[in-house]
Write a structure and sequence with these properties.
Layout (H helix, E strand, L loop, with lengths): L6 E5 L3 H13 L3 E6 L2 H11 L3 E5 L7 H10 L5 E6 L4 H9 L4 E4 L4 H48 L4 H15 L3 H10 L2
Parallel strand pairs: 1-2, 1-3, 3-4, 4-5
Helix pairs in contact: 2-3, 5-6, 5-7, 6-7
């Protein structure tokens, strides 16, 4: 057994299924960081341990697996969710897709199916998270660039600067005051 370095939360209302899943996962090098018998408990556990993956049944009391998966996605509580179910109709599959489920496996689950799906789901989830961070950084950079452009326009209009003079002014103040050009631009626009 090798340590795969992934933390997994199991959620199923049947204790025997949770026990079997825990054994199967631990035999394959995964760490089970929590178990839950309903969707509310799985959310609470995920908020506390932030697992790499949640492996849960669709049908659970209080809050079902589909709804819990939606909450996990909305709150970014795990990199991936795998749903285990006896249902394979298109309505369940569509609902799973809409709730951010990474993989949908029909019971009974075979280790030869489960392990590759865990690895792929977590890898895809981590890649999606990385892309989301990159997109957010690009959006922030674009916003700062827009503010600098507005400040340049303001300087060109109010101080009769050329575009290059306005840019140089913002850059020089930024260097002299050791603050970002975006912050200088914000200050210029506040003085209007």
């Amino acid at each position: 057994m090798t340590d795969r370095g992934l933390n997994i939360v199991i959620a199923d209302d049947e204790p025997i299924i949770r026990m079997d899943l825990r054994e199967l996962l631990e035999e394959n090098g995964y760490t089970v960081t929590g178990e839950a018998s309903d969707g509310y408990d799985v959310l609470e556990i995920c908020r506390n341990v932030r697992p790499d993956l949640v492996l849960m049944d669709v049908k659970m009391p209080l809050l079902d697996g589909l709804s819990a998966a939606g909450c996990i996605k909305d709150e970014n509580l795990a990199d991936a969710v795998i749903l285990l179910t006896a249902y394979s109709d298109s309505e369940f599959i569509e609902s799973a897709r809409n709730n951010g489920v990474s993989v949908y496996l029909v019971k009974p689950v075979d280790v030869r199916t489960l392990v590759p799906n865990i690895e792929l789901a977590v890898t895809r989830g981590q890649e999606a998270k990385r892309l989301k961070v990159e997109i957010q950084a690009a959006e922030e950079k674009l916003e700062k660039r827009k503010i600098i452009e507005r400040a340049k326009s303001h300087l060109m209009e109010k101080s009769n600067f050329s575009e290059q003079q306005a840019f140089d002014y913002i850059r020089n103040v930024s260097k002299a005051k050791n603050i970002s050009m975006g912050r200088v631009a914000e200050i210029i626009l506040m003085k209007r």
